[in-house]
Specification:
globular, alpha/beta, 19 strands
Length: about 450
């Protein structure tokens, strides 16, 4: 096991910034608020025909329904206990898929399916089978495919797991968040450790080969001691992957977070201690930090792809499936063709209306230009492989925007670079998001404009 690197807390404080996760470039905040559906359709059709027969495509399906509100959650969700909505939503997904199938001039090769939410297991096992069967019908399943689903320990049954396994799913992610019962009450996500333990056991007994957890630090009333106990208990189950992420408090954007008393949020110093101690504990138990606070065991497919330099990053986060096209289906779902980005309408009512009128539900998006493509490649290379090379067409922009940022990062020992390219240091690996941000031309220009306005 590699020796755990001790990180200066002052360095963590310095780089403790609110930055994009760079699951896309440009970040969503720089997209056009309206993307003409005909522009998106033409781009999708072109890139599908370029990528499908060689790499296959990835499909993300957003299932937004939850029976209760987790007040910390930043996802697009609909709270309801009325399960009759399942049929209406699946009919809309079917129509949306047909609209895309009409654009496809080849039989789709399905490389990846991810069911996200919301709570995908809000849907009955029968309806999940109906949904996946719809996508797989008259499609080709790539021999190296990976199908995954997000689960809730309190809503995922053995029948759900049995059906999903029979459809080719082998990875499930549980949002454990925190195991302390007081914190669970505050965030309204009650799932005693026994339920988490049982959910992980059921998944493995059903045949799932990758059981993943999400843990959040920085929640109301969390302390270094309480969160250390959450990690200790989680490690007794040895999940194959752990997403170890900081809670983002944005009450102006997510109304449910206004229910928190901000005085209960941990101070910056406490969050730093949670982060450093948590990372240390995970690595001492054999987990490897592959970047952006994603930890894996050595036997997991994501770790193997990372070691080979073949992981990819998109709206689903890190993926072992390096496809050039991600198609998002469902309300608020994101899509990425490699040369264009899009998001579906966020309102469920408007999503239904668009699909019922036989129109793609695209709302906002972005068509990349040559400059965007160059810096997107830099950011993907850094986040996935820890190094990148520079092209001649970038030279003037590198000098103007990038090198001044890199000089500061190099001073702190996070990177080394020259005119040919950049390599992330072992220390810099823990600050990947900050290094990616150095290549975010859109953010730099926006900051310059903002400073001039002041």
């Amino acid at each position: 096991m590699e020796e755990v690197l001790k990180i200066n807390p002052l360095l963590i404080r310095k780089y403790n910034l609110q930055l994009p996760k760079y699951t896309s470039y440009p970040p969503v905040s720089f997209w056009d608020n309206y993307l003409a559906p005909n522009l998106w359709s033409a781009n999708f059709q072109k890139e599908f025909n370029n990528n499908n027969h060689t790499e296959g495509i990835s499909i993300y399906i957003h299932l937004p329904f939850c029976e209760s509100l987790c007040t910390y959650c930043g996802c697009n969700k609909k709270i309801t206990t009325d399960h009759t909505i399942e049929d209406e939503y699946l009919l809309a997904i079917e129509k949306e898929w047909k609209l895309y199938r009409n654009l496809m001039q080849q039989t789709p090769v399905i490389r990846e399916i991810h069911l996200g939410g919301g709570t995908p297991t809000f849907f009955s096992p029968r309806n999940l089978k109906r949904l996946v069967s719809l996508i797989l019908k008259n499609s080709i399943v790539h021999p190296a495919h990976e199908f995954s689903v997000e689960g809730h320990s309190g809503h995922t049954t053995g029948k759900h797991l049995e059906i999903l396994y029979s459809m080719g799913f082998r990875r499930i992610s549980y949002s454990v968040v925190d195991i302390d019962i007081e914190i669970q009450r505050i965030i309204n996500r009650i799932q005693p450790f026994e339920k988490v333990e049982n959910a992980a056991k059921m998944a493995r007994e059903a045949g799932f080969t990758s059981v993943n957890f999400e843990l959040l630090y920085g929640l109301p009333k969390q302390t270094n001691q309480s969160f250390e106990k959450t990690i200790e208990q989680s490690l007794t189950l040895m999940p194959d992957r752990i997403a170890f992420e900081k809670y983002t408090h944005v009450p102006w954007a997510k109304k449910s977070q206004r229910l928190f008393d901000e005085n209960d949020l941990p101070a910056v110093e406490e969050k730093i201690r949670m982060y450093t101690r948590g990372k240390e504990m995970l690595m001492q138990h054999g987990y490897v930090d592959i970047g952006m606070d994603q930890f894996t065991l050595a036997g997991d497919s994501l770790y193997k792809a990372w070691k080979k330099g073949k992981i990819h990053r998109n709206f689903m986060g890190y993926s072992a499936q390096n496809t050039g096209l991600l198609l998002g289906l469902g309300v608020s779902a994101f899509s990425d063709t490699g040369t264009a980005l899009a998001q579906n309408i966020k309102s469920l009512h408007d999503y239904f209306a668009s699909i019922s009128n036989n129109q793609l539900a695209i709302k906002k998006g972005y068509i990349l230009n040559e400059e965007d493509a160059l810096f997107r490649k830099n950011i993907l290379d850094i986040s996935c492989r820890g190094k990148t090379s520079f092209g001649e067409k970038q030279s003037s922009l590198l000098e103007q925007y990038i090198f001044p940022k890199l000089a500061l990062l190099a001073f702190d020992g996070l990177v080394s670079y020259d005119m040919a390219g950049l390599e992330v240091s072992r220390l810099g690996h823990f600050f990947i998001r900050n290094i990616c941000n150095a290549f975010d031309i859109h953010s730099h220009r926006a900051k310059i404009i903002s400073n001039k306005a002041v």
